[in-house]
Design brief:
It contains five helices and two strands. By secondary structure, it is mostly helical. It has a two-stranded antiparallel ribbon with strand order 1-2. Strand 1 and strand 2 form a beta hairpin. The protein is elongated and about 50 Å long.
Amino acid sequence: MRFVLRFIFVGLIGFLCGSYLPQFPLWPSMAGAFLVGLLLSRKKKKWVFGKKQKPTYAFLAGFLALLIVWGLVAFTKDSANASLLSEKIGGVFDVFLGMEGEWLIPKPNMLVLITALIGGLAGGLSIMTGNLLGEAIKS
């Protein structure tokens, strides 16, 4: 149940920060994920269904929530301008990485995927940090 609550709260905070704070959508999303992890943490020795609860569940909830939110936001912003900017930045990746020729994933979609992964990692690490701090404070 906590996994679902974390997922919903972090996704909602990430969506609101991406929609209403377009200048800096990453940091408020990370702060919100940290607070969700801090507020929804339990004592360290809590046993759930016969197993000790791990902080990886908190990481997974934050990772998936912001991965989906950032992926959707990046996709909608990219499709609004017909992927013009993504094509140009994809050309920079070709020169920088030395990867001439065809990619397995088209360049605009690759940049959306990279953006989603960065958001997912930021959300996962933030909520896990808040969760571990909450466990340390409460125990």
